[in-house]
Backbone:
């Protein structure tokens, strides 16, 4: 379920070209400005110019935008940086402090030593969030975990509920079983919608080539727009960084999922399952998913909702979206988030109406 932007060689757009062209696709909140001001209001101008917070695993890179109660964004992959959140989540910066972070091993953050790669785990990623919360001096934070990022965001809320105001699990997975569902769903789409490519992939597998191999990934990547998008043309609206630091770390990906990651869950994810602890989570939680998402599918989203208390969780399906409803149904997605997040966190957690 690796990011199709960075893992499969999608062409990168130079920063100057991107800035010049940006006005045609920025979120509505950024459209009011022009030129350099547009970039400053989009979050892109600050990208790569953040700061570092200490942790026992190394330095954690982060950027902050806006003011008000904090919302931490946890990126997917596993292995991806926060870059694809720009400029979309600037919509929240008028009322909140948006905190973009790169987990250890990703983006501009430090890497674990090669002998410690088995420490790339969901639980360790959650500790990055805690280290950054402490470094920034927040008592309570809200979290948005996208794709894989929903797993450490949930793990954080389960371990540190006293420090969580609200939790959003956006197009994510639940455990090792749902990650295998994701793999099977993606392969089902590839096999049925791209049979000519699937046949070539099976020829590679017959020769002993695993899905982590570059030649497998190059072929596999030709199927991924249909997997991630309802409208594949919207792929062009994602921020394409020209900085190698924003590339996805395949070493981290394989540490989590194993050496055959598009076929079978192995690695540190193999036995991960937070469900036994989830019924006790009282943090207000929003689970959202795109109807046409073949990665974090609506079926998986329903399983996440079912594992949470009905009184403190809600499920929303975006009917015209794939894996990134914040791109395909931008207004609906951010209006939902604005209603969900309190502007001034008074320290109390109101319960959501059950769906």
Residues:
């Amino acid at each position: 379920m690796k990011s199709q932007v960075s893992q499969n060689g999608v062409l990168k757009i130079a920063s100057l070209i991107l800035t010049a062209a940006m006005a045609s696709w920025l979120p509505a909140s950024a459209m009011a400005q022009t030129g350099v001001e547009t970039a400053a209001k989009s979050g892109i101008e600050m990208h790569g110019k953040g700061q570092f917070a200490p942790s026992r695993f190394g330095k954690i890179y982060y950027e902050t935008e806006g003011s008000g109660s904090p919302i931490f964004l946890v990126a997917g992959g596993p292995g991806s940086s926060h870059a694809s959140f720009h400029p979309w989540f600037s919509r929240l910066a008028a009322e909140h402090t948006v905190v973009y972070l790169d987990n250890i091993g990703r983006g501009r953050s430090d890497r674990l030593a090669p002998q410690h790669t088995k420490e790339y785990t969901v639980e360790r990623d959650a500790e990055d969030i805690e280290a950054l919360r402490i470094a920034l001096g927040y008592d309570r934070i809200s979290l948005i975990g996208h794709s894989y990022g929903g797993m450490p965001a949930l793990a954080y809320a389960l371990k540190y509920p006293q420090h969580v105001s609200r939790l959003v699990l956006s197009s994510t997975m639940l455990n090792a079983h749902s990650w295998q569902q994701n793999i099977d769903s993606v392969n089902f789409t590839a096999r049925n919608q791209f049979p000519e490519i699937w046949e070539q992939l099976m020829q590679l597998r017959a020769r002993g080539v695993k899905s982590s191999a570059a030649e497998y990934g190059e072929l596999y990547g030709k199927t991924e727009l249909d997997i991630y998008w309802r409208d594949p043309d919207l792929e062009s609206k994602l921020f394409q960084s020209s900085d190698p630091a924003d590339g996805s770390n395949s070493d981290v990906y394989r540490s989590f999922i194993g050496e055959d990651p598009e076929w079978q869950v192995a690695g540190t994810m193999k036995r991960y399952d937070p469900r036994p602890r989830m019924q006790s989570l009282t943090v207000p939680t929003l689970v959202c998913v795109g109807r046409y998402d073949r990665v974090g599918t609506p079926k998986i989203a329903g399983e996440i909702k079912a594992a949470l208390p009905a009184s403190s969780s809600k499920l929303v399906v975006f009917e015209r979206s794939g894996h990134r409803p914040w791109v395909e149904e931008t207004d609906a997605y951010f209006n939902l988030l604005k209603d969900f997040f309190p502007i001034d966190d008074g320290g109390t957690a109101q319960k959501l109406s059950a769906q």
Notes: The domain at 15-340 is CATH 3.40.50.1820 (Rossmann fold). The chain has one domain: 15-340. The chain has 13 helices and eight strands.
